[in-house]
Each structure stands twice: as structure tokens, then as C-alpha cells.
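Example 3.2
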Amino acid sequence: MVLMFLCPGAIAVQNEHPFPDVTFKVFNAFVEQNFSSKITLTTVLMLLFTLTENTDLLNLHQRQQNPELSDEKGVDLSSWMKSLAREVQKQTMATKFKTLFKTSETLNVIPDNQVITRVGTKLNGLADILGLKSFGSDGMLIQKLQPISKKEIQPILIICPPSNVCSDKKC
């Protein structure tokens, strides 16, 4: 027992960013401007949590948007964001995927690579309004995004009996 206390130990402490604190008005305006009016809450939440769960991808994406070396070329939409958009397309039912586009964005005339680019652009815009940025407007690194804390969005649970009917006369 004493030997265990003498052995060096490691403690993993992970920093977290707070959950995005964007107003509903701003969030709603973004959804209305970028997606179909038929988009469901389920799909919107899927997109929200897809971004908040992929902070490492966002760091890589934003790094490619903000070149640091003289021979680097900045991109508006990185291959990282396009990969995420492609996964959203693969894992979303076709009917729900169509709601990621406004009626004016006719999907049947857009080439597949442009569909991915448009979804990636929408995801990038959503990350921006959520404040999930590791670089400032000057292109300088602010700080690497850390995992997003879910502490502020935890449900409030109440312990109660599972039955909603009386089982005897005394109840």
C-alpha cells in the first residue's frame, strides 16, 4: 500500500470552453437565412452538437483559413470542413438533408461537390455565430478551442414514481 503512494501519478485535467452563449434571436435568424423553413428542431440540434463536439476539426479548419507562414495559402473552406459536410450528408436521411437548403437552392441542378461546399459554408457560418473561433479577425491565433462544456445545458431531473395511476385505494 505504501509503495502505491510513493509511485508518481498523473492527473488529466481538461480545460473546457463554455457552451456557446448566442442569443436565440441571432441563432434563429441564422437558421431562417440559411436553411429551409421545413428544417426540424432535431436537424438543427444535430448540426449544433456536430459543431460543438468537433472542436479539434474546427481548430484545423480555422488554421487553414489563417495562414501563418509566407508560403501558405489561406482557404475559405478547408478540406476539414468539407469532410464534416460530407459526413453530415452521409449520415442524414435524404428528406432531412434537403431541409439544409432553401427552396431557391435547387439541389437537383447543383453538382455533388457544390452541395458539399454549400453545406460546409453553412456549417462554417454556424460556427462563426456560435463564437467557436480560435483565430481573431486579424488572423492571429486567440487560443485553441477546447472541448465544449455541457454543464449549462444539463437537464433538470426530478425523482418521481414512474406510475401515473393509483394502485390501491390509499393513494
